[in-house]
């Protein structure tokens, strides 16, 4: 199949033949691109396959996965199509590359975080875990989608205390929603606006390494 998205892929150095590797699919924010996420995931490149997915719709000099009617209000048809396309892309990449299907992670910021959380709810234990930075779950996903259990899915959610795009209460409400769905939830607030601090990056890198069972002794 021809995937719906352009992407770049980074394989661990010194890969072992016949070994399957954990994978991180990155999803960027609205108006950004796949290279923006690579820098955030770079500390994990020695142990994970990293696949950076570019949104298929243009927005200025960047890209997006779906368009909005207004802030926090996706165009439903485009959002639904993005979810379907991303599920298909994850299957495609799992078959094409030496991916451990039991250790598939999504890592998204803003619009990418919204999609990561939505995909966790639609794919359930097909995903090992997600990292969602400064996002939310659309109301129609909670009430109208066919949702899968995420009780065995690991979820890392973070939000900026001074987020001027999605106020901090949205992050708190999102965490409360997932708290009722899984016992494997980590929720952190950081003293930032709508962005990712070095502390936030350090925390989700350690979380991903730990959740995937990777030896974090760098010495």
Automatic annotation (TrEMBL):
Belongs to the AB hydrolase superfamily. AB hydrolase 2 family. This is Esterase. It comes from Paenibacillus contaminans. The keyword Oxidoreductase does not apply. Keywords: Hydrolase. Residues 22-200 form the Phospholipase/carboxylesterase/thioesterase domain. Pfam families: Abhydrolase_2. InterPro entries: AB_hydrolase_fold, LYPA1-2/EST-like, PLipase/COase/thioEstase. It comes from the Bacteria. The keyword Hydrolase applies. GO terms for molecular function: hydrolase activity.
